[in-house]
Amino acid sequence: MMRTNKDKQISVQQLKALHATFHRIGMDDDARHDYIYEFTSGRTASSRELTMHEARQLLERLNPPDEKTRAMQLAEAKSVFRDIYRLSFMIPQLNQGFTSDSEDEYRMNVAKLNMWARKYSKARKDVTAMKLWELQDTKKQLEAWMRREEKKQKNETI
Q1: Which of 129, 132, 82 has the alpha carbon at shortest distance from 109?
Q2: Around Cβ 128, how many Cβ atoms within 10 Å?
Q3: Which distant-in-sequence residues (6+ apart) come within 8 Å of 94 by Cβ?
């Protein structure tokens, strides 16, 4: 079974960031432990027992981005999504050989990409529902897949 960030233990950097954030907003140890306990639905009160995924969610909740940052992240996410969509047309198992000439074809191609992402991406969810960092990871994954496909085709022609 493949381990995802949802299963991995909190990183040292995340732990430091969480403690700094709790300190910045003035939460003492008891309040911090109560907050974590409530956040994890009673699973733990210790920040050291959080998963990477939980830590990321908690940091996002405690450090909401301002409007300018949110707009920049949204623009970057749209750009990365477009890159992923273009990449999908270069990969035989996804959208290679298909067109995107109409709104219906576009929606069908995105649906195929979403099905692939739910099954094979690290995030295990639709690309249309991914956060920026998940889109970036998925793009890297598709680029690696494309390199393997190109290598395979090169070897077949030799």
Answers
A1: 82
A2: 12
A3: 88, 112, 113, 116
Tokens of 114: 């979403």
For 76-93, the pLDDT digits (tens) are 999 999 999 999 998 878
Distance CA 5, CA 155 (A): 34
| Residues 8/52, Cβ–Cβ less than 8 Å | yes
Phi, then psi, of 49 in degrees rounded to 5 = -95, 5
CA–CA dist 56, 139 (Å, integer): 20
Contact by Cβ (8 Å): 128, 114: yes
**Amino acid at position 71, single letter:** A
**Is residue 60 very low, low, confident or very high in pLDDT (cuts 50, 70, 90)?**
confident
> Which letter does DSSP use for residue 66 in this model?
P
Does the pTM surpass 0.90? The reply is: no
